[in-house]
């Protein structure tokens, strides 16, 4: 198929960087969003981030410009889908929105086109009926920031064809990422299940008064060689994101996975999401 044409739906931080990753690997990329402001910001972010890679010597300046030249931005989903070989959806983490998007993609994209969602909490099986092509549908979960993080979780639903997974695995390796293949859907996949177990334990230790936030973070960094502590990580990722993932995992397992800890719920309800709001576990003002 050559250098497959890639459509990324959603021009936020994740969608923008996912698009840049594919463009740097030689793929023609279109980034789609309903917001013209988001599309303008996305273009500026790509120029800044890809340009920074060239400044640091990670890539040649000519390759940076070539990658940017392979990218285009549009508000028209149907036109972009009509020429795509792979679609990676990185829109809002709401099931109703995703179902609407995948229904439109399923109708507009060519028969061979593979549809993937970047969601870390909504499995593709919940989008299968809307898409009309469950066999060419899967999760392709990139990590933030996508230009830096090397892992991509590739997760089939129970109808995904082996040919689809093999193609997605090949594409993942082709863009310089390490594909973490799951053989079936599980709420939270691998990384989030590991991360949520750590975060839940950290919050419980602090709530019981057994250690301070700062000391728990220090233990993780200096004792376990983690790049940042669990509370620092929650503030970076966003307490809203952590909360929503925990709610989704709790609901999808009928309560077997824990609901958000009351302290996480308290911060969420107060709008204290971490760095993005100026306050979370730490004061970022």
UniProtKB/TrEMBL annotation:
Residues 188-283 form the 3-hydroxyacyl-CoA dehydrogenase C-terminal domain. Belongs to the 3-hydroxyacyl-CoA dehydrogenase family. Keywords: NAD, Oxidoreductase. SUPFAM superfamilies: 6-phosphogluconate dehydrogenase C-terminal domain-like, NAD(P)-binding Rossmann-fold domains. Pathway: Lipid metabolism; butanoate metabolism. It holds the Pfam family 3HCDH. It comes from Bogoriella caseilytica. The lineage of its organism: Bacteria, Bacillati, Actinomycetota, Actinomycetes, Micrococcales. The keyword Oxidoreductase applies. NAD(+) binds at residues 10-15, 33, 93, 98, 120, 144, 276. This is 3-hydroxyacyl-CoA dehydrogenase. One of its GO terms (molecular function) is oxidoreductase activity, acting on the CH-OH group of donors, NAD or NADP as acceptor. The keyword Membrane does not apply. GO terms for biological process: fatty acid metabolic process. Residues 6-182 form the 3-hydroxyacyl-CoA dehydrogenase NAD binding domain. The record marks 141 as: Important for catalytic activity.
């Amino acid at each position: 198929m050559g250098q497959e044409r890639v459509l990324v739906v959603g021009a936020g931080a994740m969608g923008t960087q996912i698009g840049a990753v594919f463009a740097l690997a030689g793929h023609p990329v279109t980034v789609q969003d309903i917001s013209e402001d988001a599309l303008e910001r996305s273009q500026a972010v790509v120029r800044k981030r890809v340009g920074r890679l060239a400044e640091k010597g990670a890539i040649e300046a000519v390759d940076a410009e070539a990658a940017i030249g392979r990218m285009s931005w549009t508000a028209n989903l149907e036109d972009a889908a009509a020429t795509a070989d792979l679609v990676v959806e990185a829109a809002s983490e709401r099931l109703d929105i995703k179902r609407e998007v995948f229904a439109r993609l399923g109708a507009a994209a060519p028969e061979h086109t593979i549809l993937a969602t970047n969601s870390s909490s909504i499995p593709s099986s919940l989008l299968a009926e809307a898409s009309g092509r469950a066999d060419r549908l899967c999760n392709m979960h990139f990590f933030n920031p996508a230009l830096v993080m090397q892992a991509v979780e590739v997760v089939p639903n129970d109808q995904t064809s082996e040919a689809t997974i093999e193609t997605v695995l090949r594409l993942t390796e082709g863009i310089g990422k390490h594909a973490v293949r799951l053989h079936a859907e599980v709420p939270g996949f691998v990384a989030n299940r590991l991360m949520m177990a750590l975060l839940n334990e950290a919050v419980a230790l602090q709530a019981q008064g057994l250690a301070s936030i700062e000391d728990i973070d220090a233990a993780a960094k200096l004792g376990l060689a983690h790049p940042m502590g669990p509370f620092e990580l929650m503030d970076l990722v966003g307490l809203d994101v952590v909360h929503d993932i925990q709610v989704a995992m709790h609901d999808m397992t009928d309560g077997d996975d824990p609901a958000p800890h009351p302290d996480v719920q308290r911060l969420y309800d107060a709008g204290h999401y971490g760095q993005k709001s100026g306050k979370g576990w730490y004061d970022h003002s």
